[in-house]
Design goal:
30 strands; six-stranded parallel β-sheet; seven-stranded mixed β-sheet; single chain; 346 residues; alpha/beta
Length: 346
């Protein structure tokens, strides 16, 4: 069993802006549950009792508030005063690390058997979790030998051209000794630590099966809700047309799933299709929201929103506006009536 884990949550979450303007990406809700709690649930399966969150200064206050209200696991914060890349945060806290611990990236969780991963891990200082993908062109492929040692990485090979479809799943089993060779400061797993370990024959890889939940971009955030609604997650459940407690839905919820957060309102005559409407938001009568995300306390006034559009917290989208093509509306913004449209008035 593993007692300790490090979660790398120090990024600004720019790919998920405007939702991450004040809320760190790891606290974005999935079916009403902060994403980090899905990681906690997975870690609990192998006995993790203590988690160190490697955070940046941009969301320090939000993380401190969250940590203070969390009792299981015990949460400690390690604040990066300057950018330390992916491995630098571990060098900064190595005196606090157990001899053996887990490392997880902050915006993905692979719902495979973490216990099996730990059990199958070869006796090496660092072991990567690997998952098979259909399209290798978007990832770095990890080639291992019969003993589970990583032999090389192949960056984004076209489908069918690589000897394996295994890619890094963002979860590592590591020994503290890995970081003895490095001084404090910026340090990259991908560019420095892992290639050095491969050269020394000290990096392993274990392929595991499971649903990969990813909230790194708006399309992935929507896809994660789609997977959860389909019953593919064992860490969180959601009815296909889910209402949060206290949501007021008089309008139509179409498609195979929706998530309507607590206190949100979908008025009669409005239609929401396969979208996320976060807590306190209001979708007025006549509005259509499709394949998009409406932030906390935002208001959509008889407007049309589609194609992975993201509305920031507290924003107002005026009557007659049409938003599409993954446009993002900043928090607190106000679009006046018909200020954004693809058709002139008749």
């Amino acid at each position: 069993m593993i007692r300790q884990a490090i979660l790398l949550v120090g990024g600004r979450g720019t790919r998920m802006w405007p939702l991450t303007d004040t809320v760190p990406k790891g606290l974005l809700p999935v079916a009403g549950v902060p994403f980090i709690e899905l990681q906690f649930r997975l870690l609990a399966e192998v006995g993790v009792e203590e988690v160190i969150l490697a955070i940046g200064t941009s969301h320090e206050s939000a993380w401190r508030t969250y940590a203070e209200g969390t009792t299981s696991p015990v949460v400690h914060l390690a604040v990066e005063q300057s950018k330390l890349d992916t491995a630098g945060p571990l060098v900064a806290v190595r005196d606090q690390l157990d001899d053996r611990f887990l490392v997880l990236n902050g915006d993905v969780v692979l719902e495979g058997s973490l216990g099996q991963f730990v059990e199958d891990a070869p006796d090496l200082p660092a072991v990567l979790s690997l998952v098979g993908v259909e399209d290798t062109s978007a990832y770095g492929v990890v080639v291992t030998n019969d003993l589970g040692k990583v032999e090389r990485f192949i960056e984004k090979p076209p489908p069918g051209t690589a000897p394996t479809n295994a890619v890094n799943a963002g979860m590592y089993l590591m020994s503290r000794s890995v970081f003895d060779a490095y001084d404090e400061g910026a340090l990259s797993f991908e560019q420095t630590v892992f290639p050095s370990l491969v050269e020394q024959g000290l990096l392993g890889g274990v392929k595991i099966d499971g649903v990969w939940l990813d909230i790194g971009t708006p399309p992935l955030y929507l896809q994660t809700h789609r997977d959860v609604a389909a019953g593919n997650s064992r860490l969180v459940n959601m009815e296909p047309a889910h209402h949060g407690i206290g949501a007021n839905v008089a309008g139509d919820l179409d498609g195979n799933w929706n998530f309507i957060g607590p206190g949100a309102v979908v008025e009669e005559g409005a239609r929401v299709r396969e979208s996320i409407v976060l807590a306190g938001a209001t979708i007025r009568s006549g509005s259509v929201v499709e394949d998009s995300i409406v932030g906390w306390n935002a208001v959509v006034e008889n407007a049309r929103i589609s194609d992975t559009t993201v509305i920031g917290a507290g924003a107002v989208v005026g009557e007659g506006c049409e938003l599409t093509a993954a446009v993002r509306i900043g928090p607190g913004s106000s679009l006046s009536a018909r200020s954004v449209t693809f058709e002139p008035p008749s």
